[in-house]
Each structure stands twice: as C-alpha cells, then as structure tokens.
TrEMBL record:
<protein>
    <submittedName>
        <fullName>DNA-binding response regulator</fullName>
    </submittedName>
</protein>
<dbReference type="InterPro" id="IPR009057">
    <property type="entry name" value="Homeodomain-like_sf"/>
</dbReference>
<dbReference type="Pfam" id="PF08765">
    <property type="entry name" value="Mor"/>
</dbReference>
<dbReference type="InterPro" id="IPR014875">
    <property type="entry name" value="Mor_transcription_activator"/>
</dbReference>
<dbReference type="InterPro" id="IPR049739">
    <property type="entry name" value="YraL-like"/>
</dbReference>
<dbReference type="GO" id="GO:0003677">
    <property type="term" value="F:DNA binding"/>
</dbReference>
<keyword id="KW-0238">DNA-binding</keyword>
<feature type="domain" description="Mor transcription activator">
    <location>
        <begin position="10"/>
        <end position="90"/>
    </location>
</feature>
<dbReference type="InterPro" id="IPR052411">
    <property type="entry name" value="c-mor_Regulatory_Protein"/>
</dbReference>
C-alpha cells in the first residue's frame, strides 16, 4: 500500500472536512468489504502452503517419518501431524 496525497485525489471541501478531524495526521481508509481479499491471495503464499502440505502428506504416505519431514520443512513434529491429519480429512 502506498500513500496518496489527499489534495491530489479528493475534492477540496472533502479535504477541509477531514482536516477538522485530523489536521496533518495520517488516516487509514479501509477497503470496502466486497473488495477485501483473503489472507495470502495477493502474495500467493496461500497456494504455496497448500501445495507444500500436499507434498508433506504424499511424502508421509510413501513412508517418510514425521521427524524427517519436520526437519526437511523446518516445522515441528506437531505441525507435521496436524497437516497430515487435515490432508487425510480431505480424502
């Protein structure tokens, strides 16, 4: 997100109205609910993690021990177990 100068975007009377409430300060204007994106949609990390979890599950099914998977993916054994449990539910 980048900052925009209000005087370059908003009508002068709107800028003056806002200045009555916050003169010279920073103001965050949230996105409309219908325009919000879910976590990870912009960066693609959500899909990357989904693919990683499927990869972990497939490795587990092929016989990779949980301890080795935890070391390989830099996760705790508990997290690996959770991922496996969640992927099993999807089948």
């Amino acid at each position: 997100m980048k900052y925009e100068k209000a005087q370059n975007i908003l009508p002068e009377d709107v800028v003056e109205l806002i200045q009555q409430y916050i003169d010279g300060g920073y103001l965050y204007i949230p996105r409309k609910c219908e325009n919000r994106k879910a976590w990870g949609e912009n960066s693609g990390i959500k899909n990357e993690l989904k693919d990683r979890n499927v990869e972990i599950f497939n490795s587990y099914k092929k016989g990779s021990p949980i301890k080795i998977l935890a070391e390989k993916y830099y996760l705790t054994e508990q997290t690996i177990r959770r991922i496996i449990r969640e992927e099993k539910k999807k089948i």
